[in-house]
Amino acid sequence: MSAVLFDVPGPKARVRHRIYTVVGLAGLAAVLAWVLWTLWQKEQITPDKWTAFGNPRILGALVQGMGVTLVTAAAAIALAVAYGAVFAFGRLSDHAILRVPSVAIVEFFRAVPLVLLILFIFLGIGNVIGTFWSLVLGLTLYNGSVLAEIFRAGILAVPRGQSEAGYALGMRKYQVMTEILSPQAVRAMLPAIISQCIVALKDTALGYIIAAPGVTRIGQLIFINPLYRNPLAVGIVIAAFFIVVNYALSKLAEWVEARMRRRGTTPLPARAANIPDESALT
Amino acid sequence: MYWQELVSRLWSGFSVTLELLAWSLLFATIVGTLLAAMRVSPVPPLRAFGSSYVTLLRNTPLVVVFIIVVFGFPQLGILRGQYFWLAVVALSSYTASFVCEVVRSGINTIHAGQIEAARSLGMTFGQALRLVVLPQAFRAAIPPLASVYIALTKNTSVASAFGVVEATYQLTRLNKDFPGTLIYNFCGIAAGYIVIVFVISAVAARFERRVGVAR
Fold first, then answer.
1. Range of the domain at B115
2. CB burial class (10 A; 0-12, 13-18, 19+) of residue B105?
3. CA dist., res. B190 & res. A117, Å (int)
4. Residue ranges with strand state E in A118-258
């Protein structure tokens, strides 16, 4: 598409583009040089800011922290899928007594900032369930509510003839839901679910706020240590970890989507890798 | 006594939240639009810069961006001690990557004929982008842009852990000063955020009816 934005360059335009390229490269190089120079001058790339990552004990703790972060995200996603399925069915129910509370709960947890929710859980019952489960519970409530909306959209996207055929065979609504609509919906929703995994993984970093175990907590322990005092270096290392995992996950979502297209299933729009949720209030 | 205190602290908390939101929204929109322009430009290094910025910032958790900006930048002598502005930098550089993606997908919805027409009138890339493409792209991008702003509203709460006394910070403080009132404090603060979210979506809906593209 962006190829339509400009003509196929002729000889003059090619020269101009080459000049822009050189100027652009020089500009980027200048910015990079300035950044490196500042870092050097403020003694940020001196070895003592980075020795922490050569210490095998610290490195081990960091790797363990990454493991805990991944476990947190996995637990939250697993619980969120269950929670999302329950509330999606609740919202699609014919009975107002199930539907109305489901709508209210889902909308509430999507509109409230996750930080506020996690803090509330932690201050309220944190001394009973601990920081890890406070974080997992907060992540579950939020991501589950987002997933409930994804599931609902997926079920509504199955062609109507499918459920009509089910009813014509004498199935009950429950049977139509579980045996006809859900299996078809789940396949179409797979890319969207993987995208939500990226959101959940990123949000596990919020555990920092309540000092929940995980890679951000380990990072904090390193950079508040008077021996190191290197928040910049620690931030870059942690960021690299998240970028690698999330990039891999988004590639996986793309691959699944492409595979589904080839096989003739239309995937639900994968909410372009963690574009934030559109609250139904919108 | 307690209720009065609750109202006054909610008021002061949300005025900081709104200020944080306004500045971050402004900077994120400007930077995000510039990045989107870079990503569709004919100059390869700018394109590469735009797409790597988006990939890096979008996949980094906001908390980690905050750690780098709020604790790292002062060590470089940038904005030392100014927690509010450090939070604005963190929030807007993170949100800019989402704005960029939204604007870019807005650009992609524009009919190729529009751009071809602009080019056949002899417009340069910059003119076509400024006069023809971006105005239409923003119109198409109103609903997704509204959800980016809503996410930004909720994300301002991360600043509470990084030295900014905004609405979410009041939860911990109120809970310390008035034990046993957690549920009221939570509901009060949550209601404040819901009101902001509601206003943003109402404004977006109005705006869409006014200028949105009929699809």
1. 2-211
2. middle
3. 9
4. none
* Beta-carbon separation of A232 and B193 below 8 A: no
| Chain A residue whose CA is closest to B175 | A123
B181 contacts chain A (CB < 8 A): no
Looking up tokens 């019952």, which residue turns up? Answer: A125
Residue type (1 letter), B37: A
Taking residue A225's Cβ as centre, other Cβ atoms within 10 Å add up to: 13
CA-based nearest distance A179→chain B, Å: 34
Q: Supply the ipTM of this predicted assembly.
A: 0.89
User: Cα–Cα distance between A45 and A49 in angstroms, integer?
Assistant: 7
Q: Hey, is the C-beta of B100 within 8 angstroms of any chain A C-beta? A: no
Note whether B77 contacts A44, CB cutoff 8 Å.
no
Q: Is the dihedral of CA B105, B106, B110, B112 positive or negative?
A: negative
Q: How far apart are CA B172 and CA A201, in angstroms?
A: 25
B43 touches chain A (CB under 8 A): yes
Which of A204, A250, A275, A277 would you mutate first to test chain B, the one with the most B CBs within 10 A? A275
Whether residue B44 lies within 8 A of chain A, CB to CB, comes out as yes
DSSP state of B190: H
Q: Based on the structure, what is the number of domains in chain B?
A: 1
* Residue B126 reports pLDDT greater than 60: yes
For A2-14, give one letter per residue: b (16+ CB within 10 A) or e: eeebbeeeeeeee
Domain at B94, CATH number:
1.10.3720.10
How sure is the predictor about B213, in pLDDT bands with cuts at 50, 70 and 90?
low
pLDDT confidence tier of residue A4, bands split at 50, 70 and 90: low
Token pair 């995992």 in the structure block, residue = A245
Q: Is the pTM of this model over 0.90?
A: no
Q: What is the DSSP string of A94-133?
A: S-HHHHHHHHHHHHHHHHS-HHHHHHHHHHHHHHHHHHHH
Q: Do A119 and B168 touch (CB under 8 A)?
A: yes
CB-based contact B24:B88 (threshold 8 Å): yes
Those of residues 52-91 in B touching chain A at CB distance below 8 A are 55-56, 58-65, 67-68, 71-72, 75-77
